[in-house]
Amino acid sequence: MHFKLWVSTNDTANWIINNTVLKNKKCVTEKLVESDANNPKTFHRVPEAIKKILYLDAVDIIIEYNKKPILAVEISSEAGTGHNAFQRFARLVAAAENNVSVAYIYPEAAYIHRKNFDRWDEINPLVFRALERVMQIHNIPVLFYYYPTEYNYIVIMVMFINY
Q: Is the pLDDT of residue 129 over 50?
């Protein structure tokens, strides 16, 4: 029994293996081939179960256990606002449609520099509802993790200073 991580970079694979319970398991890594269009010479060699997850677009990580995909992970460093929260959504749905659990990771907010102003963009609350619907429709677990940023710290400091 062993795990295989399909990833686009070895740094990502090494970080996951070294910082999770996988460090105590037998793991191998494989280069994630994004699509038939991007890599027609090698995509046909990808196992069918992996191809099914990639049919709309490539997630960042697919973890297999004994040659069966068990988790698809999408990681974003952009703010989860407006269309950004849903831009990669098809990747998650493709995994769920194929009975593969999903983890979606991105920041709680990001500071955006624009031409006329700068501001914090917060999470789009609609993503919570959309991921809930994916779980209801496909009866598969979906983990949504938004990691902390300086946003809440700065909001609290501004409130304190203005008080």
A: yes
